[in-house]
Amino acid sequence: MTTTEFPPLKNDLLLRAAKGEHTERAPVWVMRQAGRYLPEFRKVRESHEFFEVCRTPALATEITLQPIRRYSGLVDASIIFSDILVVPQAMGMEVLMNPGPHFPDPLVTPADVSKLNKVVDVEKELGYVFRAITQTRMGLNGEVPLIGFCGAPWTLFAYMIEGGGSKTLQKAKTWLFKYPEESKALLLRIADVCVDYLVGQVKAGAQLLQVFDSWAGELSPYDFNVFSFPTLKHISENVKRRLKEEKLPEVPMTLFAKGANYALGFLAENAGYDVLGIDWVIDPVEARRQVGEKVALQGNMDPNVLYGGRDAIEAAVKRMCEGFRSGKGGWIANLGHGITPGVDPEDLRWFFECVHKYSAL
């Protein structure tokens, strides 16, 4: 399907803000928007395993559309329901979700890299995501843009070695320090799969791409610069080059390097992304000071404020809006990380309503 066959987009607020335009109000969406806080999501999951949902385009489409139906007119973007760990799966690793991610056979030493697929055909391995994206674009009927995404190489590398989540990332960091060249080679190999995957998502209908470096903040500034940053730049440069070469839409790209707020100015100047996401431990005024008008910003309310009641949510959104609106440049309202499962969906509705109210002032 070509992009000309999709329904015309009725709300382009997100895309305009991502390109740095000062919009009439901030577009708003939240990370993990299609997720466990929604009763309709939990209903689907009662009879379907997590990765089964990811691999079944009709189910992934349904779950992606659930928050758009519930918050119609309030939310300005959809993000395809999938998981960052489909890339390690495509590379030949087994990943289970129970409830968090678990790799039964993680990479222990660089010799284990030989177990990975030598060549990754993303169409064959991840075509289910592409089909879900195309179906979702049709299902959205142009109401809001559709975001595609992948995990950043460092974050994926850490999961592949740790075998799941970790508080210390001791095993993954041991690789960086003990086997630096082998680590760089694996990181680049992951990055190449991410490039193919993201280009495939645009081909399928994604209108903005986000790269999640969830564990960026676990690295020292030096190690982030040596191990993570080169792969992030590799992705932005090669995705943009490929989109141009293949005459595909040149969609905006967002980087969310959680916890690496010290690097915002450097990333704005050098990483090649249109938008930088920020978490809640940096003030929006400071973030804008660091990046100037070089990139749009996305963020950044603490997700836990959503448990604090309507008054707390309103006060936090008001502060956030004042902070972002104090400088020039595009801004996309969001949380500083993903929404968590215990949030009342009506409190998220209030968050959206408050963003509409205060970002338009």
SSE layout and pairings?
Layout: H1 13-18, H2 39-45, H3 50-55, H4 57-70, E1 78-79, H5 86-90, E2 96-97, E3 101-102, H6 122-140, E4 146-151, H7 153-162, H8 170-178, H9 180-204, E5 208-213, H10 221-245, E6 253-257, H11 264-270, E7 275-277, H12 284-291, E8 296-301, H13 310-325, E9 331-335, H14 345-359
Parallel strand pairs: 1-4, 4-5, 5-6, 6-7, 7-8, 8-9
Antiparallel strand pairs: 2-3
Helix pairs in contact: 4-6, 6-9, 7-8, 7-9, 8-9, 9-10, 11-12, 13-14
EC number: 4.1.1.37
Subcellular location: Cytoplasm
Pathway: Porphyrin-containing compound metabolism; protoporphyrin-IX biosynthesis; coproporphyrinogen-III from 5-aminolevulinate: step 4/4
- Envelope shape: globular
Q: Within the largest sheet, what's the order of strands?
A: 1-4-5-6-7-8-9
Distance N to C terminus? 40 Å
The string of secondary-structure elements, in order, is HHHHEHEEHEHHHEHEHEHEHEH
Mean pLDDT: 97
Main sheet summary: 7 strands, parallel
DSSP summary, beta strand count: 9
The low-confidence runs, each spanning 5 or more residues with pLDDT under 50, are none
Quaternary organisation of the protein chains: single chain
Helix content: 40-55%
Number of helices: 14
How much of the sequence lies in strands comes to: 5-15%
